[in-house]
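Let's inspect one such protein example.
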Amino acid sequence: VQLQASGGGLVQAGDSLRLSCVPSGRASSSSGLAWFRQAPGKEREFVAAIRGSGTTVYADSVKGRFTISRDKTKNTVYLQMNNLKPGDTAVYFCAARSSPNQPIVSTMGQRGTYDYWGQGTLVTVSS
């Protein structure tokens, strides 16, 4: 099982980045996939998720700035991040489910909903 995350980098406040995640093996992108992030010294927190039906859920801190989307033909999930802030600095992880069943909406932001985790990609936003 692999989750290949990419797209991180060093940007200035107000800039944009697009992260990509490609699941393979037993990880299923069809049922649901999410992005979490972990800043230095902090707990891993939910960012955004998309499930099989296309329903999306966002953390309040990124609503209106981040967009999660899916390209089924490329088996890739994206996280478009606009108007980045220094507080967005973190390692971003994509997470996928082993089950082909999509999660209940209320559980899409929970770490326990996902079985597989990528290695993370670092996003650094300077002020």
In short: The chain has no helices and eleven strands. The mean pLDDT is 93.
